Amino acid sequence: MAVAPLLSLFVLFFSSPRRCSANATAASPPSPSPRPTPLVPAFFVIGDSTADVGTNNYLGTLARADREPYGRDFDTHRPTGRFSNGRIPVDYLAERLGLPFVPPYLEQNMRTGGGGGVGPANVDGMIHGVNYASAAAGIISSSGSDLGMHVSLTQQVQQVEDTYEQLSLALGETAAADLFRRSVFFVSIGSNDFIHYYLRNVSGVQVRYHPWEFNKLLVSTMGQEIKNLYNINVRKLILMGLPPVGCAPHFLEEYGSQTGECIDYINNVVIEFNYALRYMSSEFVRQHPGSMISYCDTFEGSVDILNNRERYGFVTTTDACCGLGKYGGLIMCVLPQMACSDASSHVWWDEFHPTDAVNRILADNVWSGLHAKMCYPLDLQQLVKLKL
């Protein structure tokens, strides 16, 4: 999902002092120990606020989650840059893979003097994986730029290429290639291209592109970036579809939902994007033997939760735990006093992002389809075992 509009984040940025600095170690704490033997060498993450674990703490941006009450239910009970009350899906998946929580790429650069020189500490920081995800980022480079700096999809892939080069210099080309081939890459991005670009009609985009044409542009760009990853020996990839953006509290508020019904116009565009993304991924695998992309339908998994809230233990599927206005969708979570006492009873944490409880369910589905089948043709547990 995405981050709040500009006005909301201005309030977020200036209304209270930050509780967590960019240098805080809470951004990438170790997973609870003892961990099992890792199932893969490393876990690499590309994405937006659905996967950001602290990248934007290092950027000049309004799209930050480095203050309370964000992170209040996280392992460290401190804000880390994650847009949730607790963990996000990649944290649960790293744990399933037997790996530590994956640190932000920019954190690694800060610790090694901005990337000048490759030394043991640098390699140690990247050897189990790196998280490049940046809140407000989109497939289109300018998506989300109204909020300030971010690292777009293309820039994140360039960072992956830089990581590969650094590992090649430190470990040798053969070892680096083998590391990438056996590791899992996770991609979750695209919501901001609608929230901060198409739906806002930036530069008259709706006149120039019908929704299906815009989706074709997005998916084509995504395919090219996946090809760039393939060229540096990425072979196992989890590709996340978009969630039901039209059900987010922000849009329930903005579009005047009367009884909590989702905004069909938005969801229909998202469904079309997801269909094109799944088709592209299957065609890519067909054309590139020795690779596997598992497309995971976040929309399908999320709708299952929304339609079966009682089975999952949720009290409300419309109201954000932390926010203002009807459905809590008028403004982003700003102060601890704005948050409900029990986030686990809510599907939504803030106006765009799900709670830790939802993130756990979605991660379970990506891993094994525990609650609902989301990933095609393989779930992550199967992908890990696949010999390519």
Provide an overview of this structure.
The protein is an alpha/beta fold. 40% of the residues lie in helices and 8% in strands. It contains 15 helices and seven strands. It has helices spanning 6-15, 89-96, 105-111, 120-126, 153-171, 173-182, 191-198, 205-208, 211-230, 249-254, 264-287, 298-307, 309-312, 356-368, 380-385; strands at 43-47, 184-188, 236-240, 292-296, 316-320, 346-348, 375-376. The strands form two sheets. A five-stranded mixed beta sheet has the order 1-2-3-4-7. Strands 5-6 form a two-stranded parallel ribbon. It is globular and about 60 Å long. The relative contact order is 0.14. Residues 3-27 and 114-121 have low confidence and may be disordered. Belongs to the 'GDSL' lipolytic enzyme family. Residues 1-22 form the signal peptide. It comes from Paspalum notatum var. saurae.
The radius of gyration over CA amounts to: 19 Å
Structural class by secondary-structure content: alpha/beta
Q: What form results from the Cα inertia axes? A: globular
- The secondary-structure element order is HEHHHHHEHHHEHHEHHEEHEH
Main pleated-sheet profile = 5 strands, mixed
- Total strands: 7
The helix tally amounts to 15
Strand order of the largest sheet: 1-2-3-4-7
Average pLDDT score: 90
Query: How far is the first residue's CA from the last residue's CA?
Result: 32 Å
Which bin fits the share of residues in helices? Answer: 40-55%
Spans where pLDDT lies below 50 across 5 or more residues: 3-27, 114-121
Strand content: 5-15%
